[in-house]
Structure prediction request, 167 residues.
Amino acid sequence: MRPTPTCLFIAVLALAGVGPASAANDTTQFNVTITITSVCDIHTVAPTNVNFGSVASTATNVDQQGQLTINCTPGTAYTIGLDNGQNGTDVNSRKMASGANLVPYQLYRAAARGAADVWGSTAGVGGNVLAGSGTGAAVNVPVYGRTPSANFPTGTYNDVVTATVTY
Prediction:
């Protein structure tokens, strides 16, 4: 019997010391990491002023609204506090000034503008700051204002209030 070409090929490879090819491999592992820190931004979008506009001196309970915009890391707890302004000694004595003349006003966390809604800078128990939790997107936060009376000398009155986010 005569050998087949396949048998001859295998016999030649065996004599030559060449075997069928076999693959080898080795593995390792590595970590991929990131550390994300919390951040809250209250100044990327400029605030909208609380502008009571032009009103007659007989006007009472003049209401207007401004707006802050806050953007915090998702899940980050924050509070926003408003200071007394440049002319107030505490949150209950905020005043707009025109020279020596002062017009009282108040800022609130809620549209109802109730006594419990007064917006200040005290955190913790009995605090009067606005609390929230970050969403990762810019969130508009209204600032409600009221001046109880415009019965003051004519003029343009103003005050500057600083908003602070704590997280």
Remarks:
- The radius of gyration is 36 Å.
- The mean pLDDT is 91.
- The CA atoms of residues 21 and 131 lie 69 Å apart.
